[in-house]
Design goal:
This protein is of the alpha+beta class. The chain is built from five helices and twelve strands. It folds into two domains: 109 residues, Ribosomal Protein L22, Chain A; 122 residues, no CATH class. Strands 7, 8, 9, 10, 11 and 12 form a six-stranded antiparallel beta sheet that branches. A four-stranded antiparallel beta sheet has the order 1-2-6-5. The protein has a two-stranded antiparallel sheet with strand order 3-4. The protein is globular, with a radius of gyration of 17 Å. A hairpin with a 5-residue loop joins strand 3 and strand 4. The model has no long low-confidence stretch (mean pLDDT 89). Keywords: Magnesium, Metal-binding, Transferase.
């Protein structure tokens, strides 16, 4: 990761609909000012957690400014989810050297999920806890064709995005094996996507449910930063 701070590379925005506003931060994490009750709820945080929390909230406020909000506090719900202003849906993510947030009016999109992960492989011993047999087979096949991408980690990231989108609507978390993800490489990219990205789409199907739900999303690999990003925006539709 880079050692200097930079806002809004355009990586995340290129993976989201234009009605969704986003903000990114690349670089070493520093403590950003907290607003109102954010200070109270973060008093017990470790130094590392506090930096992650503050940079995530900074990105969230930057994104919300496009919708006319002036530095609102973003508190934490009972399940550690961000509490957004009324009529707003959004998502926050961070990993080493990268943080981001995406928001929109809930009349535009019912829900949003974003996630970022380092492009590092997951230990094969935990594959069965995260992926189905079909997904494990897919990871092997995609690794042969695109070995520079950690497809197991990308699978994990896509599920994180789906779960972040699912929870605000249905009020409960999912296990990793409750969702199955299939990836697709994009041969024709939109003009707004930076050329340095390797991009594609994914389809997620929820399993072990009385009803069959699915959603679509986008993913990107940023080689220079060894970074994976996944997104989904809209709603989980019954199929």
């Amino acid at each position: 990761m880079i050692g200097f701070p930079k806002f809004n590379s355009g990586f995340l925005a290129s993976l989201l609909p234009e009605e969704v506003f986003s903000s990114e931060y690349l670089g070493s994490f520093y403590g950003f000012p907290l607003i109102g009750k954010e200070k109270e709820i973060s008093r017990s945080f470790s130094s590392k957690r506090l930096k992650e929390f503050s940079v995530g909230r900074k990105c969230a406020r930057n994104a919300l400014s496009h919708l006319g909000f002036n530095d609102p506090p973003i508190l934490i719900g009972t399940n550690r989810e961000p509490i957004w202003p009324k009529n707003i849906c959004g998502s926050i993510t961070h990993c080493r050297g990268y943080a981001a947030a995406a928001v929109t009016s809930d009349y535009r999109f019912r829900t949003i999920g974003i996630d970022a992960e380092p492009n590092n492989p997951i230990e094969s011993e935990v594959y069965s806890l995260i992926m189905s047999k079909k997904e494990i087979k897919q990871v092997g096949e995609l690794t042969c064709s695109q070995p520079n991408i950690s497809w197991d980690r990308l699978t994990f990231s896509a599920k994180e995005s789906v779960y972040k989108a699912w929870f605000p609507t249905y009020g409960k978390w999912l296990d990793f094996t409750d969702c199955e993800v299939m990836f697709y490489l994009d041969s024709h990219r939109p003009n707004n996507q930076p050329k340095e990205l390797v991009v594609g789409r994914y389809h997620a199907q929820l399993l072990k449910s009385k009803r069959s739900y699915s959603c679509n999303g986008q993913w990107a690999f940023v080689p220079f930063f060894n970074l994976l990003i996944t997104t989904t925006a809209g709603s989980l539709t019954e199929s």
